[in-house]
Amino acid sequence: MSVKVLYFAWVRERIGKAQEEIEPPAGVATVGELMHWLAGRGEEYASAFANPRVIRAAIDRTHVPPETRIGQANEIAFFPPMTGG
Amino acid sequence: MSVKVLYFAWVRERIGKAQEEIEPPAGVATVGELMHWLAGRGEEYASAFANPRVIRAAIDRTHVPPETRIGQANEIAFFPPMTGG
Amino acid sequence: MNARLQTEDFDVAAEAAALRNGRTDIGAIVTFTGVCRGTEAGEPIAAITLEHYPEMAQAEISRHVAEAERRWPLMGVTVVHRYGRIEPGDNIVLVVTAAAHRQDAFAAAEFLMDYLKTRAPFWKREERPSGSAWVEARETDDRAAARWTRRKPEAAE
Amino acid sequence: MNARLQTEDFDVAAEAAALRNGRTDIGAIVTFTGVCRGTEAGEPIAAITLEHYPEMAQAEISRHVAEAERRWPLMGVTVVHRYGRIEPGDNIVLVVTAAAHRQDAFAAAEFLMDYLKTRAPFWKREERPSGSAWVEARETDDRAAARWTRRKPEAAE
Question: Which of the listed CATH numbers 3.30.565.10, 1.10.10.350, 3.90.650.10, 3.10.20.30 matches domain B3-79?
Protein backbone atom coordinates (compact mmCIF):
# COMPACT_ATOMS: atom_id res chain seq x y z
CA MET A 1 0.00 0.00 0.00
CA SER A 2 1.50 3.31 -1.05
CA VAL A 3 1.60 6.48 1.01
CA LYS A 4 2.61 10.05 0.23
CA VAL A 5 5.53 11.27 2.30
CA LEU A 6 6.42 14.97 2.67
CA TYR A 7 9.69 16.48 3.92
CA PHE A 8 10.23 20.02 5.17
CA ALA A 9 13.08 22.39 6.04
CA TRP A 10 16.45 20.64 6.55
CA VAL A 11 14.86 17.17 6.32
CA ARG A 12 13.75 18.12 2.80
CA GLU A 13 17.16 19.60 1.99
CA ARG A 14 19.11 16.55 3.16
CA ILE A 15 16.87 14.09 1.32
CA GLY A 16 16.85 16.33 -1.74
CA LYS A 17 13.15 16.17 -2.42
CA ALA A 18 9.97 17.66 -0.98
CA GLN A 19 7.75 14.63 -1.41
CA GLU A 20 7.50 11.13 -2.80
CA GLU A 21 5.22 8.11 -2.90
CA ILE A 22 6.62 5.16 -0.98
CA GLU A 23 5.52 1.60 -0.32
CA PRO A 24 6.94 0.50 3.03
CA PRO A 25 7.31 -3.26 3.61
CA ALA A 26 4.90 -5.18 5.81
CA GLY A 27 7.10 -5.01 8.92
CA VAL A 28 6.91 -1.21 9.08
CA ALA A 29 3.89 -0.50 11.28
CA THR A 30 4.67 2.75 13.14
CA VAL A 31 5.98 6.21 12.30
CA GLY A 32 9.18 5.42 14.18
CA GLU A 33 9.67 2.22 12.19
CA LEU A 34 9.05 4.15 9.00
CA MET A 35 11.82 6.62 9.93
CA HIS A 36 14.18 3.72 10.60
CA TRP A 37 13.30 2.11 7.28
CA LEU A 38 13.68 5.42 5.39
CA ALA A 39 17.11 5.95 7.01
CA GLY A 40 18.27 2.75 5.32
CA ARG A 41 17.37 3.93 1.83
CA GLY A 42 20.62 5.77 1.15
CA GLU A 43 23.10 8.33 2.40
CA GLU A 44 20.79 11.32 2.00
CA TYR A 45 18.09 9.56 4.05
CA ALA A 46 20.61 8.38 6.62
CA SER A 47 21.73 12.00 7.03
CA ALA A 48 18.18 13.30 7.37
CA PHE A 49 17.19 10.70 9.96
CA ALA A 50 20.57 10.45 11.73
CA ASN A 51 18.99 11.69 14.95
CA PRO A 52 15.37 10.51 14.73
CA ARG A 53 14.54 11.92 18.17
CA VAL A 54 14.67 15.49 16.83
CA ILE A 55 12.41 14.72 13.86
CA ARG A 56 8.72 15.53 14.24
CA ALA A 57 6.02 13.71 12.29
CA ALA A 58 2.45 14.33 11.20
CA ILE A 59 -0.11 11.89 9.83
CA ASP A 60 -2.77 13.45 7.66
CA ARG A 61 -1.80 16.92 8.96
CA THR A 62 -1.94 16.15 12.67
CA HIS A 63 1.11 15.89 14.95
CA VAL A 64 1.80 12.32 16.06
CA PRO A 65 4.42 10.67 18.30
CA PRO A 66 6.76 8.06 16.73
CA GLU A 67 4.91 5.09 18.25
CA THR A 68 1.77 5.97 16.27
CA ARG A 69 0.68 3.26 13.84
CA ILE A 70 0.63 4.31 10.20
CA GLY A 71 -2.63 2.48 9.53
CA GLN A 72 -4.58 3.94 6.61
CA ALA A 73 -2.54 7.18 6.46
CA ASN A 74 -2.76 9.10 3.19
CA GLU A 75 -0.02 11.62 3.95
CA ILE A 76 2.91 11.40 6.35
CA ALA A 77 5.20 14.39 6.92
CA PHE A 78 8.64 14.59 8.56
CA PHE A 79 10.20 17.87 9.67
CA PRO A 80 12.43 19.51 12.32
CA PRO A 81 10.97 21.21 15.42
CA MET A 82 8.90 24.16 14.29
CA THR A 83 10.16 27.73 14.43
CA GLY A 84 7.22 29.82 13.25
CA GLY A 85 5.44 32.66 14.98
CA MET B 1 -0.26 75.38 58.97
CA SER B 2 -2.61 75.26 56.01
CA VAL B 3 -2.82 72.44 53.48
CA LYS B 4 -4.69 72.05 50.20
CA VAL B 5 -7.17 69.18 50.24
CA LEU B 6 -8.67 67.69 47.06
CA TYR B 7 -11.73 65.46 46.73
CA PHE B 8 -12.65 63.25 43.78
CA ALA B 9 -15.61 61.23 42.47
CA TRP B 10 -18.29 60.55 45.09
CA VAL B 11 -16.16 61.99 47.90
CA ARG B 12 -16.20 65.28 45.99
CA GLU B 13 -19.93 65.00 45.31
CA ARG B 14 -20.85 64.29 48.92
CA ILE B 15 -18.71 67.10 50.29
CA GLY B 16 -19.94 69.41 47.55
CA LYS B 17 -16.56 70.85 46.62
CA ALA B 18 -13.50 69.73 44.67
CA GLN B 19 -10.88 71.36 46.88
CA GLU B 20 -10.30 73.63 49.83
CA GLU B 21 -7.59 74.97 52.07
CA ILE B 22 -7.83 73.65 55.61
CA GLU B 23 -5.90 74.19 58.82
CA PRO B 24 -6.17 71.03 60.91
CA PRO B 25 -5.63 71.38 64.67
CA ALA B 26 -2.38 70.29 66.31
CA GLY B 27 -3.71 66.84 67.37
CA VAL B 28 -4.24 65.73 63.74
CA ALA B 29 -0.96 64.08 62.77
CA THR B 30 -1.87 61.31 60.29
CA VAL B 31 -4.02 60.95 57.19
CA GLY B 32 -6.43 58.74 59.15
CA GLU B 33 -6.75 61.36 61.89
CA LEU B 34 -7.36 64.01 59.26
CA MET B 35 -10.24 61.93 57.81
CA HIS B 36 -11.70 61.58 61.30
CA TRP B 37 -11.41 65.32 61.91
CA LEU B 38 -12.92 66.16 58.50
CA ALA B 39 -15.86 63.80 59.20
CA GLY B 40 -16.75 65.98 62.20
CA ARG B 41 -17.02 69.17 60.14
CA GLY B 42 -20.64 68.69 59.07
CA GLU B 43 -23.18 66.35 57.54
CA GLU B 44 -21.68 66.40 54.05
CA TYR B 45 -18.24 65.45 55.43
CA ALA B 46 -19.74 62.84 57.73
CA SER B 47 -21.42 61.28 54.68
CA ALA B 48 -18.23 61.34 52.60
CA PHE B 49 -16.12 59.78 55.36
CA ALA B 50 -18.83 57.50 56.82
CA ASN B 51 -16.74 54.46 55.91
CA PRO B 52 -13.15 55.71 56.03
CA ARG B 53 -11.78 52.26 55.21
CA VAL B 54 -12.95 52.55 51.60
CA ILE B 55 -11.41 56.00 51.13
CA ARG B 56 -7.99 56.17 49.50
CA ALA B 57 -5.58 59.01 50.13
CA ALA B 58 -2.62 60.59 48.42
CA ILE B 59 -0.06 63.04 49.79
CA ASP B 60 1.59 65.20 47.18
CA ARG B 61 0.33 62.89 44.41
CA THR B 62 1.55 59.62 45.89
CA HIS B 63 -0.70 56.92 47.37
CA VAL B 64 -0.36 56.67 51.16
CA PRO B 65 -1.93 54.44 53.83
CA PRO B 66 -4.01 56.15 56.56
CA GLU B 67 -1.30 55.85 59.21
CA THR B 68 1.01 58.11 57.17
CA ARG B 69 1.98 61.33 58.94
CA ILE B 70 0.87 64.49 57.19
CA GLY B 71 4.16 66.24 57.91
CA GLN B 72 4.95 69.02 55.46
CA ALA B 73 2.35 67.93 52.89
CA ASN B 74 1.33 70.56 50.35
CA GLU B 75 -1.58 68.64 48.84
CA ILE B 76 -3.68 65.84 50.30
CA ALA B 77 -6.31 64.08 48.19
CA PHE B 78 -9.19 61.79 49.21
CA PHE B 79 -11.04 59.57 46.74
CA PRO B 80 -12.80 56.21 46.30
CA PRO B 81 -10.98 53.13 44.97
CA MET B 82 -9.90 53.84 41.42
CA THR B 83 -11.78 52.52 38.40
CA GLY B 84 -9.71 53.66 35.43
CA GLY B 85 -8.19 51.62 32.65
CA MET C 1 8.46 56.68 27.47
CA ASN C 2 5.30 58.30 26.26
CA ALA C 3 2.44 58.67 28.77
CA ARG C 4 -0.44 60.96 27.93
CA LEU C 5 -3.81 61.94 29.34
CA GLN C 6 -6.20 63.43 26.84
CA THR C 7 -9.87 63.89 25.97
CA GLU C 8 -9.44 63.16 22.26
CA ASP C 9 -9.31 59.66 20.77
CA PHE C 10 -6.03 57.93 19.96
CA ASP C 11 -4.83 56.07 16.87
CA VAL C 12 -3.53 52.63 17.85
CA ALA C 13 -1.73 52.06 14.54
CA ALA C 14 0.00 55.44 14.67
CA GLU C 15 1.17 54.86 18.26
CA ALA C 16 2.56 51.41 17.39
CA ALA C 17 4.20 52.75 14.24
CA ALA C 18 5.88 55.51 16.26
CA LEU C 19 7.55 52.88 18.49
CA ARG C 20 8.73 50.78 15.52
CA ASN C 21 9.83 53.69 13.44
CA GLY C 22 12.91 52.54 11.51
CA ARG C 23 14.09 50.10 14.20
CA THR C 24 15.07 46.50 13.44
CA ASP C 25 15.75 45.32 17.00
CA ILE C 26 12.07 44.98 17.93
CA GLY C 27 10.66 41.46 17.57
CA ALA C 28 7.32 41.83 19.36
CA ILE C 29 4.74 44.58 19.68
CA VAL C 30 1.71 44.22 21.92
CA THR C 31 -1.16 46.69 21.95
CA PHE C 32 -3.98 46.72 24.46
CA THR C 33 -7.03 48.85 23.74
CA GLY C 34 -9.70 49.29 26.41
CA VAL C 35 -13.10 50.08 24.94
CA CYS C 36 -16.32 51.45 26.49
CA ARG C 37 -18.98 48.72 26.54
CA GLY C 38 -22.65 49.34 25.87
CA THR C 39 -24.01 47.27 28.75
CA GLU C 40 -22.92 46.56 32.33
CA ALA C 41 -24.61 43.90 34.44
CA GLY C 42 -27.39 43.69 31.87
CA GLU C 43 -28.18 47.40 31.93
CA PRO C 44 -27.53 49.61 28.89
CA ILE C 45 -24.92 52.35 29.27
CA ALA C 46 -25.43 55.58 27.31
CA ALA C 47 -21.88 56.75 28.09
CA ILE C 48 -19.25 56.88 30.80
CA THR C 49 -17.56 59.94 32.17
CA LEU C 50 -14.02 59.59 33.45
CA GLU C 51 -12.98 61.94 36.22
CA HIS C 52 -9.28 62.10 37.05
CA TYR C 53 -6.67 63.77 39.24
CA PRO C 54 -4.52 65.15 36.42
CA GLU C 55 -1.14 65.76 38.06
CA MET C 56 -1.22 62.56 40.07
CA ALA C 57 -2.47 60.48 37.13
CA GLN C 58 0.42 61.71 35.01
CA ALA C 59 2.90 61.00 37.82
CA GLU C 60 1.46 57.54 38.63
CA ILE C 61 1.42 56.40 35.01
CA SER C 62 4.96 57.65 34.44
CA ARG C 63 6.13 55.84 37.59
CA HIS C 64 4.55 52.59 36.41
CA VAL C 65 5.98 52.89 32.93
CA ALA C 66 9.41 53.43 34.51
CA GLU C 67 8.81 50.38 36.73
CA ALA C 68 7.86 48.28 33.68
CA GLU C 69 11.06 49.44 31.98
CA ARG C 70 13.07 48.33 35.02
CA ARG C 71 11.41 44.89 35.11
CA TRP C 72 11.51 43.98 31.41
CA PRO C 73 13.96 44.85 28.60
CA LEU C 74 11.53 47.04 26.67
CA MET C 75 12.27 48.93 23.49
CA GLY C 76 9.30 51.23 23.76
CA VAL C 77 6.21 51.90 25.88
CA THR C 78 3.27 54.14 25.17
CA VAL C 79 0.30 54.71 27.47
CA VAL C 80 -2.63 56.94 26.56
CA HIS C 81 -5.60 57.33 28.92
CA ARG C 82 -8.62 59.38 27.92
CA TYR C 83 -10.84 61.31 30.32
CA GLY C 84 -14.20 63.06 29.95
CA ARG C 85 -17.29 61.59 28.33
CA ILE C 86 -16.86 58.42 26.27
CA GLU C 87 -19.59 56.52 24.44
CA PRO C 88 -19.99 52.76 23.90
CA GLY C 89 -17.62 51.43 21.24
CA ASP C 90 -15.16 54.27 21.79
CA ASN C 91 -11.61 53.88 23.10
CA ILE C 92 -10.73 54.51 26.75
CA VAL C 93 -7.12 53.46 27.23
CA LEU C 94 -4.16 52.29 25.17
CA VAL C 95 -0.98 50.48 26.16
CA VAL C 96 1.66 49.64 23.56
CA THR C 97 4.83 47.72 24.44
CA ALA C 98 7.72 46.75 22.20
CA ALA C 99 10.51 44.28 23.00
CA ALA C 100 12.88 41.83 21.35
CA HIS C 101 10.80 38.87 22.63
CA ARG C 102 7.09 38.37 23.03
CA GLN C 103 7.07 37.36 26.71
CA ASP C 104 8.50 40.73 27.77
CA ALA C 105 6.07 42.70 25.63
CA PHE C 106 3.06 40.72 26.92
CA ALA C 107 4.10 40.84 30.58
CA ALA C 108 4.77 44.58 30.53
CA ALA C 109 1.44 45.34 28.84
CA GLU C 110 -0.49 43.23 31.37
CA PHE C 111 1.41 44.74 34.29
CA LEU C 112 0.64 48.26 33.10
CA MET C 113 -3.06 47.53 32.56
CA ASP C 114 -3.41 45.86 35.98
CA TYR C 115 -1.83 48.89 37.62
CA LEU C 116 -3.81 51.43 35.61
CA LYS C 117 -6.99 49.69 36.76
CA THR C 118 -6.13 49.81 40.44
CA ARG C 119 -3.62 52.62 41.03
CA ALA C 120 -4.12 55.36 38.45
CA PRO C 121 -6.46 58.05 39.84
CA PHE C 122 -9.39 57.75 37.44
CA TRP C 123 -13.03 57.21 38.35
CA LYS C 124 -15.75 56.07 35.96
CA ARG C 125 -19.32 57.23 36.20
CA GLU C 126 -21.90 55.39 34.09
CA GLU C 127 -25.03 56.91 32.55
CA ARG C 128 -27.72 54.24 32.97
CA PRO C 129 -31.48 54.42 32.41
CA SER C 130 -31.88 54.11 36.19
CA GLY C 131 -29.61 57.11 36.72
CA SER C 132 -25.95 57.96 36.79
CA ALA C 133 -23.70 55.93 39.10
CA TRP C 134 -20.02 55.63 39.99
CA VAL C 135 -18.49 52.31 38.97
CA GLU C 136 -17.42 50.21 41.93
CA ALA C 137 -13.86 48.90 42.01
CA ARG C 138 -13.60 45.22 41.14
CA GLU C 139 -11.91 42.87 43.52
CA THR C 140 -10.63 40.87 40.55
CA ASP C 141 -8.67 43.94 39.45
CA ASP C 142 -7.01 44.19 42.87
CA ARG C 143 -6.08 40.51 42.70
CA ALA C 144 -4.72 40.97 39.18
CA ALA C 145 -2.52 43.84 40.33
CA ALA C 146 -1.40 41.97 43.47
CA ARG C 147 0.19 39.16 41.43
CA TRP C 148 2.95 41.51 40.29
CA THR C 149 3.97 42.34 43.85
CA ARG C 150 3.83 38.66 44.87
CA ARG C 151 6.05 37.75 41.96
CA LYS C 152 8.70 40.39 42.67
CA PRO C 153 8.33 41.43 46.31
CA GLU C 154 11.21 43.90 46.13
CA ALA C 155 9.21 45.98 43.69
CA ALA C 156 6.18 46.33 45.98
CA GLU C 157 5.33 49.91 46.77
CA MET D 1 -12.67 32.96 13.35
CA ASN D 2 -10.26 34.30 10.79
CA ALA D 3 -6.98 32.39 10.26
CA ARG D 4 -4.92 33.17 7.18
CA LEU D 5 -1.57 32.24 5.69
CA GLN D 6 -0.25 34.69 3.15
CA THR D 7 2.89 36.14 1.60
CA GLU D 8 1.68 39.74 1.61
CA ASP D 9 1.89 42.05 4.63
CA PHE D 10 -1.09 42.61 6.95
CA ASP D 11 -2.64 45.79 8.36
CA VAL D 12 -2.93 45.50 12.16
CA ALA D 13 -5.35 48.40 12.46
CA ALA D 14 -7.65 47.06 9.74
CA GLU D 15 -7.71 43.59 11.34
CA ALA D 16 -8.55 45.03 14.76
CA ALA D 17 -11.19 47.33 13.26
CA ALA D 18 -12.81 44.36 11.51
CA LEU D 19 -13.30 42.63 14.87
CA ARG D 20 -14.76 45.74 16.55
CA ASN D 21 -16.93 46.69 13.64
CA GLY D 22 -20.08 48.23 15.11
CA ARG D 23 -20.04 46.10 18.28
CA THR D 24 -20.43 47.57 21.76
CA ASP D 25 -19.93 44.37 23.79
CA ILE D 26 -16.14 44.32 23.37
CA GLY D 27 -14.19 45.85 26.26
CA ALA D 28 -10.65 44.74 25.43
CA ILE D 29 -8.66 44.23 22.25
CA VAL D 30 -5.14 42.81 22.28
CA THR D 31 -2.92 42.72 19.22
CA PHE D 32 0.38 40.90 19.00
CA THR D 33 2.65 41.62 16.05
CA GLY D 34 5.76 39.52 15.52
CA VAL D 35 8.46 41.36 13.59
CA CYS D 36 11.62 40.20 11.79
CA ARG D 37 14.68 41.40 13.70
CA GLY D 38 17.88 42.59 12.04
CA THR D 39 20.30 40.68 14.27
CA GLU D 40 20.32 37.26 15.95
CA ALA D 41 22.98 36.31 18.48
CA GLY D 42 25.00 39.34 17.43
CA GLU D 43 25.03 38.46 13.74
CA PRO D 44 23.20 40.62 11.19
CA ILE D 45 20.29 39.04 9.34
CA ALA D 46 19.63 40.14 5.76
CA ALA D 47 16.24 38.39 5.71
CA ILE D 48 14.41 35.28 6.84
CA THR D 49 12.56 32.84 4.65
CA LEU D 50 9.61 31.03 6.15
CA GLU D 51 8.86 27.58 4.77
CA HIS D 52 5.54 26.04 5.74
CA TYR D 53 3.29 23.00 5.28
CA PRO D 54 0.26 24.85 3.94
CA GLU D 55 -2.64 22.46 4.56
CA MET D 56 -1.41 21.42 7.99
CA ALA D 57 -0.57 25.00 9.02
CA GLN D 58 -4.08 26.11 8.17
CA ALA D 59 -5.57 23.15 10.05
CA GLU D 60 -3.32 23.58 13.11
CA ILE D 61 -3.97 27.30 13.42
CA SER D 62 -7.71 26.81 13.03
CA ARG D 63 -7.66 24.09 15.71
CA HIS D 64 -5.82 26.36 18.13
CA VAL D 65 -8.12 29.29 17.46
CA ALA D 66 -11.08 26.98 18.16
CA GLU D 67 -9.34 25.78 21.35
CA ALA D 68 -8.80 29.42 22.46
CA GLU D 69 -12.48 30.11 21.83
CA ARG D 70 -13.39 27.13 24.03
CA ARG D 71 -11.12 28.28 26.86
CA TRP D 72 -11.96 31.97 26.98
CA PRO D 73 -15.16 33.91 26.22
CA LEU D 74 -13.80 35.63 23.13
CA MET D 75 -15.69 37.99 20.86
CA GLY D 76 -13.26 37.71 17.99
CA VAL D 77 -9.93 36.17 17.01
CA THR D 78 -7.78 36.83 13.98
CA VAL D 79 -4.50 35.08 13.17
CA VAL D 80 -2.40 35.95 10.13
CA HIS D 81 0.93 34.22 9.50
CA ARG D 82 3.12 35.22 6.59
CA TYR D 83 5.46 32.88 4.69
CA GLY D 84 8.17 33.44 2.12
CA ARG D 85 10.99 35.98 2.37
CA ILE D 86 10.67 38.67 5.04
CA GLU D 87 13.17 41.45 5.75
CA PRO D 88 14.15 43.02 9.08
CA GLY D 89 11.52 45.42 10.38
CA ASP D 90 8.75 43.66 8.44
CA ASN D 91 5.81 41.82 10.00
CA ILE D 92 5.78 38.03 10.39
CA VAL D 93 2.71 37.14 12.41
CA LEU D 94 -0.38 38.80 13.84
CA VAL D 95 -2.78 37.70 16.56
CA VAL D 96 -5.77 39.85 17.49
CA THR D 97 -8.15 38.89 20.29
CA ALA D 98 -11.28 40.69 21.49
CA ALA D 99 -13.23 40.02 24.70
CA ALA D 100 -15.39 41.76 27.27
CA HIS D 101 -12.53 41.73 29.79
CA ARG D 102 -8.80 42.22 29.41
CA GLN D 103 -7.64 39.02 31.13
CA ASP D 104 -9.39 36.85 28.53
CA ALA D 105 -8.03 38.84 25.60
CA PHE D 106 -4.46 38.75 26.98
CA ALA D 107 -4.54 35.05 27.89
CA ALA D 108 -5.92 33.98 24.51
CA ALA D 109 -3.34 36.05 22.60
CA GLU D 110 -0.46 34.58 24.63
CA PHE D 111 -1.83 31.06 24.28
CA LEU D 112 -2.09 31.41 20.51
CA MET D 113 1.41 32.84 20.16
CA ASP D 114 2.95 30.11 22.35
CA TYR D 115 1.26 27.46 20.23
CA LEU D 116 2.11 29.09 16.92
CA LYS D 117 5.77 29.08 17.99
CA THR D 118 5.86 25.39 18.86
CA ARG D 119 3.08 23.60 16.95
CA ALA D 120 2.36 25.44 13.71
CA PRO D 121 4.40 23.87 10.86
CA PHE D 122 6.61 26.82 9.89
CA TRP D 123 10.40 26.82 9.66
CA LYS D 124 12.58 29.91 9.56
CA ARG D 125 15.79 30.11 7.60
CA GLU D 126 18.06 33.09 8.24
CA GLU D 127 20.32 34.78 5.70
CA ARG D 128 23.49 35.61 7.61
CA PRO D 129 26.88 36.85 6.39
CA SER D 130 28.27 33.43 7.39
CA GLY D 131 25.68 31.71 5.20
CA SER D 132 22.08 30.68 5.36
CA ALA D 133 20.93 28.59 8.32
CA TRP D 134 17.76 27.08 9.73
CA VAL D 135 16.70 28.61 13.03
CA GLU D 136 16.87 26.13 15.90
CA ALA D 137 13.78 25.69 18.06
CA ARG D 138 14.06 27.43 21.41
CA GLU D 139 13.51 25.46 24.57
CA THR D 140 11.95 28.55 26.17
CA ASP D 141 9.21 28.39 23.54
CA ASP D 142 8.45 24.78 24.45
CA ARG D 143 8.27 25.72 28.11
CA ALA D 144 5.99 28.64 27.29
CA ALA D 145 3.63 26.35 25.38
CA ALA D 146 3.74 23.67 28.08
CA ARG D 147 2.27 25.99 30.73
CA TRP D 148 -1.10 25.88 28.94
CA THR D 149 -1.33 22.10 29.13
CA ARG D 150 -0.22 22.10 32.77
CA ARG D 151 -2.90 24.62 33.61
CA LYS D 152 -5.72 22.72 31.89
CA PRO D 153 -4.65 19.12 31.48
CA GLU D 154 -7.87 18.07 29.75
CA ALA D 155 -6.94 20.27 26.83
CA ALA D 156 -3.59 18.59 26.20
CA GLU D 157 -3.27 17.18 22.73
Answer: 3.10.20.30
Of C51, C59, C93, the CB nearest to B9: C51
pLDDT digit string (tens) for chain D, length 157 residues: 699 999 999 999 999 999 999 899 999 999 999 999 999 888 999 999 999 999 999 999 999 999 999 999 999 999 999 999 999 999 999 999 999 999 999 999 999 999 999 999 999 999 998 899 999 888 788 888 888 876 544 443 3
Contact: chain A with chain D (3+ CB pairs below 8 Å): yes
- ipTM exceeding 0.90? yes
Contacts of D132-136 with C-beta under 8 Å, sequence gap 24+, read: D134/A9, D134/A10, D134/A80, D134/A83, D135/A83, D135/D40, D135/D48, D136/A81, D136/A83
Among A66, A7, A13, CA closest to D53:
A7
Q: Looking at chain C, which subunits does it touch, using at least 3 CB pairs closer than 8 Å as the criterion?
A: B, D
pTM for the complete prediction?
0.93
CB of A50 within 8 Å of any CB in chain D? no
Nearest CA in chain A to D36: A85
